[in-house]
Amino acid sequence: MSTIATRGRSQRAQKVGLWIGLSLGALFAGFPALWMLLSSIKPNTEIFQYPPTFLPETFTMDAYAGILSSGEKLRFFANSYTVALAVVALTLFAGIMAGYALSRFQFPFKGLVNTVVISVQAVPPITLLIPYFGLVVWLKLYDTLWALILTYMVATIPYAILMMTGYFNTIPKELDEAVKVDGGSSLRALWQVLVPAARPGIVSVGAYTFMVAWNEFLFALSLTQSRSNRTVPVGIQLLMGEHSFQWSEMMAMSVLGSVPVLVLFLFFQRQFVSGMTAGAVKA
């Protein structure tokens, strides 16, 4: 009996420790976001006061009103949506097609292709900034949204190929072979059978790709010049003037910029986690 009681106390202590650890982790991760939200509804003068206050003494929505009434700032959001959605669509198409080929077919240099795809993932993006800049200028795409779209795809397509190859490997080959027996082509098997079955993997790749394209700052700052082609991360930085900082508008724009990613994860979190797990295990 004493052994059972000791084991029960040990399990309860482990659960308590786990909850304490998770609570501290949630506080550590959530506190900056909460501070950002509360700062967005403070006047700019209150943000600068010392000592700082956690809760706003004066509640105001002027920062949000200033952003939503500014055509230039709304253009930042439109550019980010345009770039992110274009990157998601093109990346998913390329990832699905390439993943299907690597999963279902044998062809020369297949192993080399896999090696190259994995190797590209290991290259730090910042080391490619100057070569990309020269290439974009040579292609006459500098200061265009296409420069951002094509650049982001270089980073997202290898990940999409790896994940989709891994997810297609989890789907029995008998499914697409049954379509071929009925006279269907490989493309018909892909789009009518495999793509619907691979929906969790596609959602996880799409969500990851959207977050990468939406949050990227360095290339968006370097490959665009006119304010009409800036994206949200660069737009937030532009609120830092030479003599003044619009902290309340910066926080408000950060909150509004976080909403699409948050909504995306809340709606597709189950498919996102299962797709990431299946693709990573079988890749």
Task: Outline the structure in words.
- The protein contains 13 helices and no strands.
- It is mainly α and 283 residues long.
- The protein has two domains: 2-40; 62-282, MetI-like fold, CATH 1.10.3720.10.
- It is globular, with a radius of gyration of 24 Å.
- The chain starts with a helix and ends with a helix.
- Mean pLDDT is 81; it is low at 279-283.
- InterPro entries: BP-dep_ABC_trans_perm, MetI-like, MetI-like_sf.
- The chain crosses the membrane at residues 16-38, 81-103, 115-139, 145-168, 189-214, 250-268.
- It is a multi-pass membrane protein.
- This is ABC transporter, permease protein.
In short:
By secondary structure, the protein is an all-alpha fold. Helix content is 77%, strand content 0%. Mean pLDDT is 81; it is low at 279-283.
Q: Could you spell the SSE succession in H and E letters?
A: HHHHHHHHHHHHH
Helical fraction equals over 70%
How many domains comprise the coordinates?
2
**Mean model confidence by pLDDT:** 81
Rg over CA atoms, rounded to whole Å, is 24 Å
CATH architectural designation of the largest domain: Orthogonal Bundle
Distance between the termini: 48 Å
| Strand percentage | under 5%
Largest sheet: none
CATH superfamily of the largest domain: MetI-like
Strand runs, count: 0
The backbone outline, from C-alpha atoms, is globular
Number of helices: 13
Query: At the third CATH level, what is the topology name of the largest domain?
Result: MetI-like fold
CATH class of the largest domain: Mainly Alpha
